[in-house]
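step=encode ok
step=design start
structure_in=
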């Protein structure tokens, strides 16, 4: 009987770990995305920098925010900010393209040169583990409800703020929050 209990416990632990590392994560630095160019993009590489994580889409009413995100990145990257775009097709199927099409669109239309991840799920049970963790940290009411939702991560990896889609990248609200956490 003890052996069955032990086996059941081990299976439960394995299933829990396979579901993502958000339960064990302490900071954003515990997560890794895939880069839009291929390969791993660990958030730990940004330790000591502020990171603005934004779920993006190419065919959304908020898509012009790419311009503001690029401006924010250009203005603050040398001061310790990373803007990280996370393309997602979760809302209105507004990001249907391949990685190459998404990257080409961003570069051609908005001169984007900040890092982009591969396309990810950002809501629900299939969400990337970073997004599950962020929702747990900030509450479900601060989970993405549409494209261009923004999470601000401090240089130590803590999640300090969430901004809904309507908050423009160069708004006083967002810029003040970014400036407050720059290293």
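sequence_out=
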């Amino acid at each position: 009987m003890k052996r069955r209990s032990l086996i059941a416990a081990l299976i439960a632990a394995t299933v829990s770990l396979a579901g993502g590392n958000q339960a064990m994560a302490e900071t954003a630095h515990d997560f890794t995305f895939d880069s839009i160019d291929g390969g791993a993009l660990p958030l730990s590489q940004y330790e000591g920098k502020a990171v603005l994580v934004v779920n993006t889409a190419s065919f959304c009413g908020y898509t012009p925010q790419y311009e503001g995100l690029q401006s924010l990145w250009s203005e603050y990257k040398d001061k310790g900010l990373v803007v990280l775009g996370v393309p997602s097709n979760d809302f209105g199927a507004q990001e249907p393209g391949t990685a190459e099409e998404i990257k080409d669109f961003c570069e051609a239309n908005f001169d984007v040169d900040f890092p982009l991840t591969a396309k990810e799920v950002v809501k629900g049970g299939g969400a990337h583990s970073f997004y599950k963790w962020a929702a747990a940290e900030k509450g479900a009411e601060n989970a993405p409800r549409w494209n261009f939702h923004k999470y601000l991560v401090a240089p130590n990896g803590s999640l300090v703020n969430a901004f809904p889609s309507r908050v423009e990248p160069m708004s006083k609200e967002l810029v003040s929050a970014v400036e407050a956490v720059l290293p």
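step=design ok
step=annotate ok -> The chain has one domain: 25-181.
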